[in-house]
Amino acid sequence: MQWIFPELTPQTAVLKLNEIATAYRKYGIVILPGFFNKEPDFECYVETIRYLFVKLLSRYNIQSKEKDIGDLLMELQKVAPLDGKIITDLGTQHNKFIAANRLKYSNFIVCFLRQIFGKAAILATPQSGDTLHFFLPGKKFKKYNLPIHQDYPYLMQSRQQVTLHFGLSMFYDDVGGIYYWPQTNRLGVLPSKKKKNGSYKIADPSIITKRYKRYELFLKQGDVSFFDSLLCHQSIPNRTKNRARINQIMRFSNLNDELAADNNWYSSVYERRGILFEQAHKDLFVQEE
Ligand SMILES: O=C(O)CCC(=O)C(=O)O
């Protein structure tokens, strides 16, 4: 497939920028297998997540022997199913890890965005653009499998938007991935519905499924893909019994867009968990008279 570029690193990909950007413009997607594998910031990000899992597991007196962060997630899931959210919150809206942000704003990515959006681009990121995603097995997690959708309705800010996706956990068969339909981004912003659980879906999926060919994307650890925020895609569910998939998503907008300007470049905003000084330091908080 002409949108897959194997064996590149961020350093060698800069030399192929034209070719990669041409494929992206044609298909709405490029896939770079193993792209981050040797990146120190990628390793650091995975190690950071591992540290957090080990620390959380130690709260339950578990010294895990698992090496992979997906397997550590499964282990935590058994004892404290909600604790994983502590980690996803750190990697989501926005990503708070320096290592992840160094990848996000790395030279290749900024050059790629400039190539895609052009010299007059005003690069920005939407408020809710970063998601650290845990895809767990089991019926309970089915709702996190997204129907055919475009990403733009979730993020807003600009319909000129690039989604960066990369794999963080070890890949196992049946752990899930993404169905995508190349070139469907050319249809523009499509009428979309909102399901009761809050997920958006294309109002008439048959315009995609009948006219376009479907492909599958399975991100192994270190694999990277960039796709247009208007490219139609859908989750392939995790069908394993005991394996997890961990992916990071990040998004980038071009604010040099009339519709974005009409909307004051606003993004979607979602409520997040957090903490306030007066809750965490009751002993130090002095109530005003
Ligand atoms: O990885 C997946 O299952 C799909 C995630 C996705 O499409 C999204 O967050 O927009």
Q: Would you mind describing this structure in some detail?
A:
- The structure is a single chain.
- This protein is of the alpha+beta class and 289 residues long.
- The chain has one domain (10-280): Jelly Rolls, CATH 2.60.120.
- It contains 11 helices and 11 strands.
- The protein has helices at 10-13, 17-27, 40-58, 69-79, 84-90, 98-104, 107-117, 152-155, 206-209, 258-262, 277-280; strands at residues 29-32, 123-124, 131-135, 161-167, 177-180, 192-194, 200-202, 215-217, 224-228, 233-236, 245-254.
- The strands form 3 sheets. Strands 1, 2, 3, 4, 9 and 11 form a 6-stranded antiparallel β-sheet that branches. A 3-stranded antiparallel β-sheet has the order 8-5-10, with no helix packed on it. Strands 6-7 form a two-stranded antiparallel ribbon.
- A hairpin with a 5-residue loop joins strand 6 (192-194) and strand 7 (200-202).
- It starts with 9 loop residues before the first helix and ends in a 9-residue tail after the last helix.
- The model has no long low-confidence stretch (mean pLDDT 96).
- Bound molecules: 2-oxoglutaric acid.
- Residues 131, 135, 146, 151, 178, 233, 235, 247, 249 line the site of 2-oxoglutaric acid.
